[in-house]
Structures are given as structure tokens and as C-alpha cells.
Design brief:
By secondary structure, the chain is an alpha+beta fold. It contains ten helices and twelve strands. It has a four-stranded antiparallel beta sheet with strand order 6-5-7-8. Strands 1-2 form a two-stranded antiparallel ribbon. The chain has a two-stranded antiparallel ribbon with strand order 3-12.
Length: about 375
């Protein structure tokens, strides 16, 4: 009976994670590829296939333009294959283009003007950012935000806040030039700034002054995996002071844009610290980690939580694809930048080498992230058993 219960729990956990994961990833990937697809169509480029997933086709249909819309077996991405592409990564097929008639070349992606090709490639990440803005803005408009005054109630002894000179009654107005409207705003910035010097503007007795503090680096294990964060050592107002603030359409959109920018800024900051050795790479997650987070968010936050996760992942996918790595959208844009400067495309050999290097880097990153997922999963199981 214990074995059957264990198997039942494992199956329930599997489906409880996989279904939310498929929903989250499918929405993000579909919107990304739809960005490429729509701009490609508007530019007059033929589209052979629009695939959600990779590998063998499970089912699909052809539209009146001859595009094959399909769902494929490996749900870890997707692609749009344009006329003249060798594959779904938009690697050009020079031999196929050379055999084309003038009419076929007119609808081929590799033969389009540089501006059109760049617009088609950039449309995917842009669509991801727009999706995030829409979701963040919608959540703020329809649900409002609970906000607590950014007031210091107590300062912990020996904390960075005490060393910086914070006092009870201080009201935090800005951090590094960015306005702070609530205690949550302050916490979000501090939590992602462990070890970094922060210039914090406080209002004390009607006057403003700037205090400099360096948050301590802390670590805890959560249902979502290992979490590192910064802490100043400040206690804020009690929860009963939180007020639900409703925003109009324009304010909600402005806040949605700000949320999207915040995620981009924090991600770039993390990558910078990773490159300089000030941050560990063990927080990078792959499909297993995203599936775990999706399942936990679905349990704790329901549909609203999943919408927030979709917005967050959409920003991450959009930003990741803009990295100047051949095979990613950013790599294509890098090649186009060289083409714009040189007045002609890079040689086929150079592009081929670049795509191979890009493929190796992408595969390495995927394997590394998957290994982190396995380690975190093992640590989580170990923690449950103790």
C-alpha cells in the first residue's frame, strides 16, 4: 500500500508540475514565434511552417497560404520556418536560394532587404516584452496593488541598516535615483542587491538625506529552489497598514512597463555579477526547474500566479533571445549589424562557423541548467527526508 501511495503521489506531483509548465511555456513560445510570423507575413515573406515544439509532428493543418501549423513532440520551444531557410533557426540555405526563380526569391527570407530581415528577427523578443507589459498591466488594473508605507519601524542591531545610520521613523523615498512608493518597492531592490552599495534617500524630520548601505547576502531554500537575497535589517510597518490601491488604465500600463523594465534590469545585473564572479551560476534553471516553479505557483497562486509567471518568463525569454549568440535572434541581429557596416553579408563559411559555435553554447547552457535542476531537485528531496 505504501508503494502504491508513493507512486500515486509521484504521479500527482508529475502532472501537477507538467501541466502548468506546458501552459506557461506554450504561451510564451507561441507569442514569441507569432511575433516572427506576423512581421514576416507583413513583409511578404513565405512561411513554410509554424511549430509549437520540436521533433516529430503530432498533428497539424495547412492554412490557405500553405503554412503548416503543427504541434510537435518535444514541448521545449518552437520555430517559424520561412521560405529560403535551411531549418527552423533561420539559418539560410544558399543552394536553395540560388535555384529559386525570381518570383520565389521575392518571397524568400534571405533575399529580403536588411531592414526587413532585422524587423522579422527582432519581432519575436519584442512580442515577449509586449506580452509581459500586457499581463503586468492587466493584473495591476484589475487587481490593484497592496502597498505599505516605506517607513522604518525598527532597525536590527548589527545590521547593514544600523551601520548606515537608519533610524526608526525614517521614510525611504528613493534608492539609487529610483523612486520608492512602498515598503515592497524597497524590499525588491534590496533583495536583488546583496553586496552592492546602495544610495538610499530617506526623509527624516521633514528633511531628506542620503544614506549608503550594503545589504548582507542571505540564502534560504524555498519550494521554488535555492534563493539568495540581500537584507538591510529593517522592519517595516505591520500588515494592517497595507492598503489596496487601484490604478487607472494609463497608470497600470506605466506600472506594467516599469515591472518589465525591473525584470530586465535585475536580470542584466545578475548576469554582470555572474561574469565578474560576484554571483553563483547555481541559480540558473532549465526545464525541470521551470516545471517545479510552475507547479508550486499553480498550487499557491492559482491562475493569477501562473499569469505572473508567464509575464516573468516572457521577459526572460525575450531578453535571452537578444543575446548576441549565433543561432539566437540576437546572433542574427549581430550578423546584420556587420552586414550594415560592411555593405555586404558575412561569408557563408563565417556564418556557418558562427552558427556552430552558437549551437555549442546553447547546448552547453541547456545542459548546465538541467544539471543545476537535478542538483536542486536532489537537495530538495534530501531536505524532505531529514
Amino acid at each position: 500500500m505504501d508503494f502504491l501511495n508513493a507512486m500515486g503521489g509521484t504521479a500527482a506531483g508529475f502532472f501537477g508540475n507538467v501541466i502548468p509548465f506546458l501552459i506557461v511555456l506554450s504561451v510564451v513560445v507561441f507569442v514569441h514565434e507569432m511575433g516572427h510570423f506576423l512581421v514576416g507575413r507583413w513583409c511578404g515573406v513565405g512561411v513554410h511552417a509554424f511549430s509549437l515544439g520540436f521533433g516529430p509532428e503530432l498533428f497539424g493543418f495547412n492554412d490557405r497560404h500553405g503554412t503548416r501549423w503543427k504541434l510537435s513532440a518535444v514541448p521545449l520551444g518552437g520555430y517559424v520556418k520561412f521560405h529560403g531557410d535551411a531549418n527552423g533557426a533561420s539559418v539560410p540555405d544558399p543552394e536553395a536560394v540560388a535555384r529559386m526563380s525570381p518570383q520565389e526569391r521575392a518571397t524568400s527570407f534571405p533575399t529580403q532587404p536588411l531592414a526587413k530581415r532585422a524587423a522579422i528577427v527582432a519581432a519575436g523578443p519584442i512580442a515577449n516584452f509586449l506580452l509581459a507589459i500586457v499581463l503586468f498591466s492587466g493584473a495591476i488594473y484589475f487587481g490593484g496593488r497592496y502597498e505599505t508605507p516605506a517607513r522604518v519601524e525598527a532597525v536590527l542591531a548589527g545590521s547593514p541598516a544600523e551601520r548606515a545610520g537608519f533610524q526608526p521613523g525614517d521614510v525611504i523615498r528613493a534608492i539609487g535615483g529610483s523612486t520608492v512608493n512602498s515598503f515592497t518597492d524597497m524590499q525588491r531592490t534590496v533583495s536583488t542587491s546583496a553586496g552592492s552599495s546602495l544610495a538610499i534617500t530617506v526623509e527624516r524630520n521633514g528633511e531628506r538625506q542620503v544614506l549608503t548601505a550594503v545589504p548582507d547576502g542571505m540564502e534560504e531554500r524555498t519550494p521554488f529552489g535555492r534563493h539568495r537575497f540581500g537584507r538591510l535589517g529593517i522592519q517595516g510597518p505591520k500588515g494592517n497598514e497595507a492598503k489596496l490601491v487601484q490604478y487607472g488604465p494609463l497608470q497600470s500600463v506605466a506600472l506594467g512597463v516599469h515591472e518589465t523594465y525591473f525584470v530586465v534590469d535585475r536580470t542584466i545585473d545578475y548576469i554582470g555579477k555572474l561574469v565578474t564572479g560576484r554571483e553563483s551560476a547555481d541559480q540558473l534553471s532549465g526545464p525541470i526547474g521551470i516545471a517545479r516553479v510552475s507547479g508550486e505557483v499553480a498550487k499557491v497562486g492559482g491562475a493569477g500566479g501562473l499569469i505572473g509567471l508567464i509575464a516573468l518568463l516572457s521577459v526572460s525569454i525575450g531578453l535571452l533571445n537578444l543575446f548576441p549568440v549565433p543561432l539566437l535572434d540576437g546572433g542574427h541581429l549581430l550578423f546584420y549589424a556587420f552586414e550594415a557596416v560592411r555593405g555586404r553579408p558575412l561569408s557563408e563559411r563565417t556564418q556557418e562557423i558562427g552558427f556552430r559555435i552558437g549551437l555549442a553554447l546553447v547546448l552547453f547552457l541547456m545542459l548546465f541548467a538541467a544539471w543545476n535542476d537535478v542538483l536542486n531537485l536532489g537537495a530538495s528531496w534530501g531536505a524532505r527526508g531529514t
